[in-house]
């Protein structure tokens, strides 16, 4: 028994089922603590694998690559609460009244016609503690000693039984549905207001952190992207494919052969820039055909109105990809089968592109002068961060570490008043960080004096293996919108 997690506490007689839930008997009292599922690691140890503890000892998980399981044919966590009760569903709100249709029930659809496509998560209790260099993360179905109700299940200070996180990034109508383009052109504040208008909320810091706990305890490895990287090796505007031949009013254009040109494939979403900049791009074109060769160049055909392009000036690169590319995978967690795992999407417990593709805007977290601020109530998200809670530690400035190798997370801070909020305080190759050490996740932060930077999580479609559930970026001032950042709905209740 891990010290401090329930030893010596008198509980009513309980029966544990496979889900880790607790059922009362009508008999006597006895010393029988609740089941706890957790991991621990030495924060100075670069090995990304962590030790399973308590009821998680000996448990194993798996994920799918296409239609095949990657590691084993069974996942112990599919019968352990809360993982076992995370369900894909349609969520509809009518005057604040919730209506839910689960996958497999009549009326369930992924196309948005019967409500947002969401994942229902039942409430659980969480703990994070640090003793010397040993850090522990754990989840319990009930409020065991040392645990608190996970903040994912607190709505303006009131406990709720369920939380819902969108299965897909939101489209231009702020819906979660399949085969839709993530909407990017708005600020965090605008996203919050739009979701509030439909009775929901923008994906927030507590949802992001809860996902971290669920993923890490299930996989027992901080290097999650080795299993499911998400989109990361697509083409960005600063290293695009250039047009080879002038064309007028065309839906097929020829690209100069090169690394970028060879990354385009049928079904991908691209941007076309007539003048080779990010400001005149034509987004949301879908590639319908690719042909050619290294000697002749590559012809790509795409949807939408025809374009005029100029040789050696106009450029083509990717934008955020359409949702739903994991729909064909029957298992809840995995990625499409592809030789390059950085050129396909991912899903965890039905939630697609939690990392990779467009970054996810996050409500309730920001930095200013490297101080980290969090809001604990949805009602505070629209207020200025000076009214939020400030963590006891400062984060680090990534812009002082200019090379790609110097963005890897090494250690997180620990605030005893806010223990469930791990934000990086040490990063970079100089401190031992790498793509295979500690938390191999990208961390990005700017620090212009008195400027508020909002949080974006997950990583982008061009960030290679730096995408992960632990990746966060504080680069964008609160008043700026950008085509790289998408949004995701959530709901408590």
User: Which percent bin holds the helix content?
Assistant: under 10%
Mean pLDDT: 90
> Termini distance?
34 Å
**Strand runs, count:** 37
What characteristic shape results from the CA principal axes?
A: globular
Q: Give a short account of the largest sheet.
A: 9 strands, mixed
Low-confidence stretches: 1-30
How many helical elements? 2
What fraction of the residues are assigned to beta strands by DSSP?
35-45%
> Which class best fits the helix and strand makeup?
mainly beta
- Rg computed from alpha carbons, rounded to a whole number of angstroms: 23 Å
Features:
mainly beta, 37 strands, Elongation Factor Tu (Ef-tu), domain 3, globular, 493 residues, disordered N terminus
Characterization of the model:
Helix content is 5%, strand content 36%. It is mainly β and 493 residues long. Among the domains are: 11-165, no CATH class; 241-318, Elongation Factor Tu (Ef-tu), domain 3 (Beta Barrel), CATH 2.40.30. Strands 28, 29, 30, 31, 32, 33, 34, 35 and 36 form a nine-stranded mixed β-sheet that branches. Strands 8-7-9-15-37-16 form a six-stranded antiparallel β-sheet. It has a six-stranded antiparallel β-sheet with strand order 17-24-20-21-22-19, with no helix packed on it. The longest helix has 15 residues, at 205-219. The two termini are 34 Å apart.
């Amino acid at each position: 028994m891990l010290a401090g997690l329930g030893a010596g506490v008198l509980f009513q007689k309980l029966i544990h089922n496979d889900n880790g839930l607790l059922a009362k008997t009508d008999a006597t009292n006895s010393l029988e603590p609740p089941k706890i599922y957790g991991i621990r690691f030495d924060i100075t140890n670069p090995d990304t694998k962590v030790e399973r503890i308590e009821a998680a000892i000996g448990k194993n998980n798996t994920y799918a690559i296409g239609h095949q399981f990657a590691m084993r044919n069974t996942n112990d966590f599919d019968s352990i609460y809360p993982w076992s009760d995370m369900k894909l569903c349609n969520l509809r709100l009518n005057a604040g009244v919730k209506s839910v249709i689960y996958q497999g029930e009549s009326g369930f659809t992924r196309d948005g016609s019967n409500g947002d496509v969401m994942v229902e998560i039942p409430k659980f209790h969480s703990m994070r503690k640090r003793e010397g260099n040993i850090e522990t993360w754990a989840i319990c179905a009930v409020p065991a000693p040392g645990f608190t109700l996970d903040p994912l299940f607190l709505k303006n200070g009131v406990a709720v039984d369920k939380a819902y996180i969108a299965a897909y990034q939101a489209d231009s109508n702020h819906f979660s549905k399949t085969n839709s383009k993530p909407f990017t052109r708005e600020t965090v504040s605008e996203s919050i207001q739009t979701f509030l208008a439909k009775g929901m909320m923008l994906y927030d810091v507590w949802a992001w952190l809860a996902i971290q706990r669920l993923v890490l305890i299930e996989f027992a490895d901080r290097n999650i992207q080795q299993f499911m990287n998400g989109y990361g090796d697509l083409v960005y505007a600063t290293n695009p494919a250039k047009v080879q031949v002038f064309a007028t009013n065309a839906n097929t254009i020829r690209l100069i052969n090169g690394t970028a040109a060879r990354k385009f494939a049928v079904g991908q979403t691209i941007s076309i820039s007539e003048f080779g900049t990010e400001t005149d791009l034509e987004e949301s074109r879908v590639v319908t055909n690719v042909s050619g060769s290294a000697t002749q160049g590559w012809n790509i055909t795409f949807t939408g109105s025809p374009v005029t392009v100029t040789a050696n000036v106009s450029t083509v690169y990717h934008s955020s990809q359409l949702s739903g590319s994991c729909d064909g995978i029957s298992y809840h967690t995995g990625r499409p089968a592809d030789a390059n795992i950085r050129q396909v999407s991912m899903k965890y417990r039905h939630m697609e592109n939690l990392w990779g593709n467009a970054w996810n805007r996050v409500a309730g977290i920001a930095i200013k002068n490297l101080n980290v601020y969090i809001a604990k109530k949805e009602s505070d998200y629209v207020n200025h961060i000076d009214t939020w809670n400030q963590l006891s530690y400062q984060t680090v400035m990534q812009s002082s570490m200019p090379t790609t190798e110097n963005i890897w997370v090494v250690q997180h801070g620990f605030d005893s008043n806010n223990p469930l909020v791990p934000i990086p305080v040490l990063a970079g190759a100089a401190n031992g960080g790498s793509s295979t050490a500690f938390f191999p996740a990208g961390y990005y932060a700017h620090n212009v004096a008195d400027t508020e930077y909002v949080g974006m999580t997950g990583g982008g479609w061009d960030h290679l293996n730096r995408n992960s559930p632990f990746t966060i970026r504080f680069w964008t001032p609160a008043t700026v919108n950008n085509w790289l950042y998408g949004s995701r709905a959530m709901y408590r209740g």
